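Incident log, structure service

09:12 report received: a user says their structure output differs between two submissions of the same chain.
09:20 pulled the input from the user's history:
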Amino acid sequence: MNYSQSRPGEHPMQGAFSTREGIQADARAISVLLQSAFVEFEPLYTPEAFAATVLSEAGVLTRMDEGPVWVAENQSELIGTVAAIRMPDFIMVRGMAVAPSARGLGVGRELLRLTEIFARTQGYERLCLYTTGFLQGAIKLYQTAGFRFTGETSNPHGTELLRMVKDF
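09:34 re-ran on a clean worker, output below:
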């Protein structure tokens, strides 16, 4: 199934982008995108948590084995990514990142929409994700998209994660 969207007619600097399912050949570019999206926050993570967030190329390939990964492109440059992992009762949203230069263009909103479409087509009624309290821009996006905090926290790598869910 093709979940891509194209916004033709816009000047590239005004936010024209398309989305598609990522392929193995995208793994290196996704790793670079994760690095560029999170490097400004690196001091707020433990080294282990940052490494778990900013996957290597091999880590991205492993993530692709766990479920679909989508990318957003502005011409030939990757500007966003997100992954979905099937869990027993929900789809886990993982590896959400938008390039700093593309923030505010609707890339994150579109990637979340694709993830929700995927979940619905797979028969799921809930999305789940974990974020950190210091990613305020991401939290605002998630809340606008219908996610809510559950009050549950996790600390697998020394940086507190907050659980958010969206039921539909």
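09:41 both user submissions now match this output. Likely a transient worker issue. Closing.
09:42 reviewer note: The CA atoms of residues 74 and 123 lie 31 Å apart. The chain has one domain: 16-167.
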